[in-house]
Amino acid sequence: MPAPGSVPALEVRGLVKHYPGVKALDGVDLVVRQHEVLGLAGENGAGKSTLLKALVGLVKPDAGEIWVRGEKVRLRSVVEAADHGIGMVFQEQSLVPNLTAAENIVLGSEGPGVRRGIYRWDTMRKLAQEQLDKIGSHIDPLARTDTLSFADRQMVEIAKVLRIEQRTQHPPVIILDEPTSVLESKEIETLFTQVRRLREFASVVFVSHRLDEVLDVCDRVSVLRGGQSVGEVPTAGALPAELHRMMIGSTGSDDHYHDTAAVRTEEPLPPMLSVRGMSSSTFRDVDLDVRAGEIVGIVGVHGSGREDVCRALFGAEPISAGEVTLDGRKLDLSSTRAACAAGIGYVPAERKIEGMVGPMSVAENMTLTKQKSRCAGPIVVPSKQASLVDRWIERLSIRTPHRGTAIQRLSGGNQQKVVLARWLVAGDIRLLLLDHPTRGLDIGARSEVYRLMRELANSGVATVLLADSLEEAIGMSDRILVMSDGRVTKEVACPSGSKPTPLDLVKEMV
Ligand SMILES: Nc1ncnc2c1ncn2[C@@H]1O[C@H](COP(=O)(O)OP(=O)(O)OP(=O)(O)O)[C@@H](O)[C@H]1O
Ligand SMILES: [Mg+2]
Asked: Is any ligand 1 atom within 6 A of the Cβ of residue 17?
């Protein structure tokens, strides 16, 4: 009998899972030690979410074994997994929208929150508040979940999964599948503090496409490629480039923004987009100029109003004042249909909700706007459309069995790529509004998106970018506006050759 500390918290041996046309898991091995934070890295579609879903009973493996603390188990449901102390925060959010945060947190593990079938609201609220306090969140437990921001809902999910502590005598295993992709840097810090605290009494499995983050918060990283385990590395002293090489199986360039320098024209062009004094309930007096060929980044903390500015420019949020022109003509901001017709493309951050139609095929999702667009011209010839779609599938290395596969069967990152491709396919865009376009994408797809953004800019498209990180904003933008509390507080020039540092921007953001 080995010493208790040496028995892994969780062990996976030879796990296999087939889907029609895809071998999602191809004999995966994985060891999660007690009291460690284990990173799981791999390209989009490598099999990470499938593996983790098998660990919480949501995916039934075709072959292989799962061992919990030295005992072989069968996990047939989330409840069975929870009884073994395994809980997961999902990449696709799982909260019930019309319930309060407190109800969502306590749901399924009510404990003293229910007495003889009757809900004790005070107790539930208190239990939920305790969980929220643990992660330093100030969300009102009585707020309805559908009124919360995406990031706040993510915090509610984390608070919820932590309830598993109450359920088991043993140290739990908490699985976080891309918990940071929708969070801003301050919230990420809070989460990481929480993850480090969790290590004291639990094991954590952590997935992120930001490799610096993985190396920062994890003790060890396991790498998946094409549904197979390809190796493990301790994070101490490891570099993102090494991890990336293991993920793709060859030497990849680490230089994300490389080759993306703007093609400079001699004279400055007049602005393509001109915004003067635009106001709404969430931002005030916004002035913004974007020239053809220019990428303008807007940075700001959560609640700075930058997302709302983008939504307003797409006609998705009413404005109360302001003049907005595109190419010298007054822009109709009354509807998204009018915005599309004027040549505006918008890649929303919440692509799952606003961006895709789950049961429809990859091809249909990719060509949605083209069909709806006023400028679609003659009816799209199916075979022509098919080869167009195939070209984009190849260009963004979208992992799908076929262009006819339903988008909901793709991995999270590959779904993102399809929605992104829709706007690039559209072809008649003059202003592109990108809200976190690289969210959830692996490094390879990200550099491809950077190249495409620059290519579109060089062809005369004006771009507004809400980047995923300050580094991305600096790397990609020609100019950066800082927003704080609904106002533009600063403009920073960002030409290649003399870029500001992230610190320069942070100083302006607070
Ligand atoms: N329900 C499903 N039906 C069919 N195929 C699926 C299903 N779920 C996943 N797949 C396929 O299995 C493979 C692995 O997907 P998975 O979601 O595990 O990838 P991932 O590593 O989590 O990627 P990402 O980083 O994009 O989230 C992909 O090719 C995906 O299309
Ligand atoms: Mg995934």
From this structure: no
What is the mean pLDDT of the segment spanning 326-340? 92
CATH code of the domain covering residue 36: 3.40.50.300
End-to-end CA distance of the chain: 55
* C-alpha 92 to ligand 2 mean position (Å): 9
Q: Do both 445 and 493 map to the same domain? A: yes
Domain containing 416: what range?
358-425
From 166, 190, 207, the end of a domain falls on: 166
Look up residue 441 and give its two tokens.
Answer: 């994408």
Name every residue whose Cβ is closer than 8 Å to that of residue 218 and which is 6 or more positions away in sequence.
Answer: 37, 38, 39, 206, 235
- Whether 33 and 9 have beta carbons less than 8 Å apart is answered as yes
Q: Evaluate whether 378 touches 465 at the Cβ level (below 8 Å).
A: no
Verify that 183 and 298 share a domain, yes or no.
Answer: no
Answer yes or no: is pLDDT of 279 > 90. Answer: yes
The answer to whether residue 306 is domain-embedded is: yes
Q: Where are the alpha helices (DSSP H) in 234-333?
A: 240-248, 306-313
Distances in whole angstroms, Cα of residue 114 to Cα of each of 107, 130, 162, 169: 10, 17, 19, 21
- Pocket mutation for ligand 1, best pick of 19, 181, 415, 420 (most atoms within 8 Å of C-beta): 19
- Does any ligand 1 atom lie closer than 6 A to the CB of residue 412? yes
Structure tokens given for 252 = 């990849």
Question: Tens digits of per-residue pLDDT, 409-443?
Answer: 998 889 888 888 887 777 678 999 999 988 888 88
Question: Which residues are placed with Cβ below 5 angstroms of ligand 2, an ion?
Answer: 49, 91, 411-412
What type of residue is 280?
S
Output the six-digit token pair for 212: 């610096």
Task: Using CB atoms within 10 Å of the CB of residue 383, give its burial: 0 to 12 exposed, 13 to 18 middle, 19+ buried.
Answer: exposed
Spatial separation of the C-alpha atoms in residues 399 and 27, rounded to whole Å:
19
Q: Return the bridge partners of 18, or none.
A: 23
Separation of CA 207 and ligand 2 centre (Å): 8
Alpha carbon distance 103, 306 (integer Å): 31
Question: What number of CA atoms fall less than 13 Å from residue 183's CA on the CB side?
Answer: 23
Quick: pLDDT tens for 214-237.
999 999 999 999 999 999 999 998
Looking at the fold, whether 125 and 187 belong to one and the same domain comes out as no
- Ligand 1 binding pocket includes 46 (Cβ within 6 Å): yes
Q: Among 26, 50, 352, which residue has the most ligand 1 atoms within 8 Å of its CB, making it the best to mutate? A: 50
Q: Amino acid identity of 403? A: R
CB atoms within 10 A of CB 176: 28
**How far apart, in whole angstroms, are the C-alpha atoms of residue 438 and residue 93?**
19
Asked if pLDDT for residue 374 goes beyond 60, the answer is: no
pLDDT for 117: 65
**How high is the mean pLDDT of the chain?**
86
- Which backbone phi and psi does 150 adopt, to 5 degrees? -55, -45
Q: What is the pLDDT of residue 459?
A: 87
350, part of any domain = no
